[in-house]
Amino acid sequence: MSSLSLNTVAVSPHPTKPNTTTTTATTTTTLIQLKQVHAQILRRSSNLNPSSNSLLLQLLVSSCTLSPHHLDYALRVFDQIPTPHTHLSNTFLRELSRKAEPKKALLVYERVRRKEGLGVDRFTFPPLLKAVSKASALAEGMEIHGLAAKLGFDSDPFVETGLVGMYAACGRILEARLVFDKMSHRDVVTWSIMIDGYCQSGLFDYVLQLFEEMKASNVKPDEIVLSKIVSACGHAKNLSYGKAIHEFITENNIVVDPHLQSALVTMYASCGSIDFAQELFNKMSTKNLIVSTAMVCAYSKLGQVENARMIFDQLVEKDLVCWSAMISGYAESDRPQEALKLFNEMQVLGIKPDQVTMLSVISACAHLGALDQAKWIHLYVDKNGFGRALPISNALIDMYAKCGSLERARQVFEKMRRKDVISWTSMISAFAMHGNANDALNFFYQMQDEKIEPNGVTFVGVLYACSHSGLVEEGRRIFSSMINEHNITPKHEHYGCMVDLLGRANLLREALDLVETMPLAPNVVIWGSLMAACQVHGETELGEFAAKQLLELEPDHDGALVILSNIYAKERRWNDVGEVRNLMNYRGISKERGHSRIESNNEVHEFLMADRYHKQADQIYEKLDEVVSELKQVGYAPNTCRVMVDLEEEEKKEMVLCHSEKLALCYGLISNAKGSCIRIVKNLRICEDCHTFMKLVSKVYGREIVVRDRTRFHHCKNGVCSCKDYW
DNA sequence: GTAGGGTTAG
């Protein structure tokens, strides 16, 4: 009993200072008072008869239950009551299930069952089932269902509704529906729970179907069930149904509360009607934080991050969710520097990030590809107690891989106590992007030895590794085992990898066969990868065909037009090149501008082609001249065959020599410590000439050079690249 | 008569 004695009663954490908030003061005092009462009961218990003692303890539990801070204490007192009133256990259960304490509610249930007498009635089940739902404890839920049936409570509408919710929350949507269908009376709450179950399971077509049934059975929908329906329309991209519901809401004068507001705005945005969402948002007389955050997300998802920022900046009071939404907006729109800048601003204001924020920040850092920045974020994560969470570790693996450090990615992986399919897949993709196919395959087999089942994403990583290393046979075998042994239906990305695998290996006929016989309609990516392979292997005719198929699907696709003109340029068909270029000018399409980044002294420096904005531009170009003449002595000659414009040879050479990655490299040679590794991140694919250039510099200057291009890493050392020139 | 519905937005 020592743990309950007065000696251990908590004192104020700051005895010399007055309590800063009144709530802390009252709860502390109340707990002290309760403990004093408890001590009195214990002291006098020998003089009291057992039933009045029990009554006093029950009163004590009731008082503790009033405050969420005292639930643990209440649980301990509850344990001392031999036969608690069912009424008391029910109240106690309700409190525990409403709070984030579902496991404790189940504990109470266990104890009630073990005590004398029955201890349960029909009122016990709704809170109990709610706790089971929160804990997703299916086995316990089924046992409770059995007990309810045995006691004949399973035809009570409240109990039945609880059972529907329990099965839905445990992912057993069919069982939920079975209970639902058997009910003789369903009200709006029952329908709402069933509809929510379908929403959670992603079965949005069923949601709309069920809503029609609900209306047909004359149950009047309220704002809660409507907000679920509206959100389902958004997920199902069913704009016409969404609009109809919106009209229904207006016609029936249903209160549009903030939940419904944000559901409507999000629905319009995800159905492609952002203008409509904005209009609706403008019409709202009071713009609360949640609806504004929904708008920030809506614009971010469309990549219209400037518009998101405008709404963000108009908000006077912003909470963590809103900051996180804006940060992730930048991270996912490939604007990592803004994301990290915002993260700093947020911290200056004293807003503490949570796990969701950190995941966006880590992802931003992965996009940026800056290793020093990555190390800093990793330290921050560990220092602030995020490091043990599985999703965070998984994100760190990806971050280090994308920042060029396979070793550090692997260190994070090795240190993890628990690894899930995402951890393994992240490592496999890491090996794949660094051209290390053997380790990718080893990990793929090892994860299965450890009974982790690969998923569709894992196979993308493995096939990608095969394709980037020319492992044609292995790739074919794995592709068929994915279908036949792992029962995964291949999606576009898997066919994309296979087309890539065959195309790179110059098996273009077979690649085309696959495209023509696959059960899915080929998309832009598939034609694109066939087209790129044709460009590499000089298959003009097929390349032109693939490019034209692609342009049928997406007439303004800049990549297709660029590659088409490259194919023509390689054949010196300048008239055709001119035609493509005119088309691009006419339609206002421009090739994405190449840029390269390099980190130096904790700063990220960015270069465009032939750009002179850098404050050390003179030195950089001087270095470039020096490097070029050094390399010429070992046989380097600028390779201009990829320059798509009809220029004099000398002008073409000038263009190639000013590519942004060469400028970044020269800056690295000037500014980074002698002998250190030079890491460059390029947004497009590296060109053949720059690739040769990097290899030669690694030999002549004795420096390790790591270049991340749009699709993979090139580690150049001693004149050799890790990609073995197979990219 | 003590009971059932919104992880609202990241």
TrEMBL record:
Domain of life: Eukaryota
Residue numbers spanned by region Disordered: 1-24
Residue ranges of PPR repeats: 187-221, 319-353, 389-419, 420-454
Protein name, entry field: DYW domain-containing protein
SUPFAM superfamilies on file: TPR-like
GO BP terms: RNA modification
Chain ranges of the DYW domain: 635-727
GO molecular function, one term: RNA binding
Family annotation (InterPro entries): DYW_dom, E_motif, PPR_At4g14850-like_plant, PPR_rpt, TPR-like_helical_dom_sf
Family recorded in the similarity comment: Belongs to the PPR family. PCMP-H subfamily.
Alphabetically ordered keywords of this record: Repeat
Entry annotated with the keyword Glycoprotein: no
Biased composition (Polar residues): 1-10
Presence of the UniProt keyword Repeat in the record: yes
PROSITE patterns xrefs: PPR
Gene3D superfamilies associated with the record: Tetratricopeptide repeat domain (1.25.40.10)
Pfam families for this protein: DYW_deaminase, E_motif, PPR, PPR_2
